[in-house]
Amino acid sequence: MESGVRKENNPPPSSFSLQQQQPPATNPSPLRKIIMVASIAAGVQFGWALQLSLLTPYVQLLGIPHTWAAFIWLCGPISGMLVQPTVGYYSDRCTSRFGRRRPFIAAGSGFVAISVFLIGYAADIGHLSGDSLTKTAKPRAIAVFVVGFWILDVANNMLQGPCRAFLADLSGTDHKKTRTANAFYSFFMAVGNVLGFASGSYTHLYRIFPFSRTKACDVYCANLKSCFFISIALLLVLTILALSYVREKTWSPEGSSGDGGNEEEGGEAKESTPAPFFGKIVAAFKNLQRPMRILLLVTCLNWVAWFPFLLFDTDWMGREVYGGDSSRNADKLKMYDRGVRAGALGLLLNSVVLGFTSLGVEVLARGVGGVKRLWGIVNFILAICLAMTILITKVAQSNRRYTTVNGGTHLLPPSSGVKAGALALFAVMGIPQAITYSIPFAMASIFSSTSGAGQGLSLGVLNLSVVIPQMVVSVAAGPWDALFGGGNLPAFVVGAVAAAASGILAFTMLPSPPPDIPLNKRAATSTAAFH
């Protein structure tokens, strides 16, 4: 990655050690400012939770074919792979008078609002453009929805990368504050999840906005619109408050040092020879320090473990736990819907645990002897939880209950013990999820700060180890499950193995961040070794 300020007669840093000069010490911003910026995550995650809970039925309402649906959901990782490194690179070099990160955060929030409007009003715009209400497929509405959905994913990536980089800037060289900032970001993601799932489960929210129900938009569609109105309002309010309260100094490549960028400190090392963007991306990978390479590998395996469950958790509840099916069999379909709703409750419990765990990340890390040990431990917890899905499924299948009504056999829900076990699994997985949402990003910020690299580009590169596993799992999970007769368990088993491998690497190969050093001593410290 980009090098920080160092004397010209110093040798270039080795790719297998990180024993180089630290950037000058920067004063971290007060915690209240970090919390204000981190709160933007609540508005972002509110919208994501609505996508998870409400968009799939809405897609069916518009008549989008199943083959198209898979293509649409791939836009998230594709945009993440392209947008976050690009935005990170240019936010590191932005010379706007409003600062480096704030213009991108503001633009991202504005595009999120536009995209959500397009998604919510896709049916109405399609009808005004000529879609027939009597036909299942509504091609014009589908076109509007697809455009809005792609803009939403691009905007979210434009928003989240600079937001995390802004938190790293505000934390300065205080590694503890960097971890705390990312923990608060994870906490507010949980808050957004809870708000989103709660809003999505309330079916009469459209009555607050009676104009949302139209000829082309039924009750379900109107409820989705109403949720999106609240989502837009929350995101814009949080963004305006944060960016108005927390300011940045204008960054200039001449005479600036460090990677601070907050109102106390600003700037980044002057580059002697500016390089094209794609050249910088290639150079970033070629010059990755060993700690960052291992962090990318551990993060990649961690997300290979997470994505099968994140993509198919409610489907697992509907199919394997409740024994339902999304086929036309009314009895199976009813039970599948009940299972999906139970899965939504599980996601709500997961978010609550995620929020509380996020607030205790620093305490947990001290208790187990460091953040890398904590990440290794929770990866093993994740592996156990994913393996437990097999046990819960087998118990549910062996205790399937039926009843006879009017000569017909009808499937009953699983026993209370099976339901409690499945919901407990959702809740426990909030613990490793809190660590996944905070520790890797904090470590990337610390590693890049210590090596003098740009925060935006570093976090954009880290995001590649998130979106690439998502693309692989999205494309390969279906065929992989089909090899073993269908169902979600084969993908969950792969996830359990990946989580265990991630835990082993975290314990054995991942370097520990530098120890926290008091600010008055940091300026006198010229080198920092990774253990």
Average pLDDT works out at 79
Please write the string of helix (H) and strand (E) elements.
Answer: HHHHHHHHHHHHHHEEHHHHHH
Strand order of the largest sheet: 1-2
Tally the beta strands.
2
General shape: globular
Low-confidence stretches: 1-25, 255-274, 517-531
- How much helical structure, as a percent, in the residues? 55-70%
Total DSSP helices: 20
User: How much beta, percentage-wise?
Assistant: under 5%
Distance between the termini: 20 Å
Based on CA atoms alone, the radius of gyration comes out at 24 Å
SS class: mainly alpha
Provide a compact summary of the structure.
This protein has 531 residues and is mainly α.
Structure description:
It is a single chain. The chain is mostly helical and 531 residues long. The protein contains 20 helices and two strands. It has helices spanning 31-38, 40-62, 66-73, 75-92, 102-120, 122-128, 139-171, 175-201, 219-245, 277-286, 290-321, 330-359, 361-368, 371-398, 416-428, 430-436, 439-451, 455-483, 489-508, 519-522; strands spanning 402-405, 408-411. A two-stranded antiparallel ribbon has the order 1-2. Helix 4 runs antiparallel to helix 18 (455-483), helix 8 (175-201) packs antiparallel against helix 17 (439-451) and helix 11 (290-321) packs parallel to helix 14 (371-398). The two termini are 20 Å apart. 52% of the residues are buried. Mean pLDDT is 79; it is low at 1-25, 255-274 and 517-531.
